[in-house]
Amino acid sequence: MGRSHYDALEPGTDAPSTAETDELFAVLSNANRRFVLSHLAEREHSPALDPLAAAMAEWSDDLDREDARIALHHVHLPKLEDAGFVEYGDTIELTDHAPDSLDIVERL
């Protein structure tokens, strides 16, 4: 006999936990963070904070360059780093976990 419709609602054993899924959606719910992931994926070289802030300010209607820099440094890059999507030091680099996440970003 096949699975019932109730069984189909249960996540498989390899599915991420609800907490992991909630964290992923929380990180990707912000357009600025989705921009950062997309911008980094399109670049051959990892940018430093200032060029990334300039790009985000140019993209955004709501941020000037300094506001973008502050938001990146204090909010967006730490959240992306905590999620395992970027490494943030002298430059900002995508991690090995980011490409799978970028597939999700493109679907949102």
UniProtKB/TrEMBL annotation:
Residues 25-89 form the DUF7344 domain. It comes from the Archaea. InterPro entries: DUF7344 (IPR055768), WH-like_DNA-bd_sf (IPR036388). This is DUF7344 domain-containing protein.
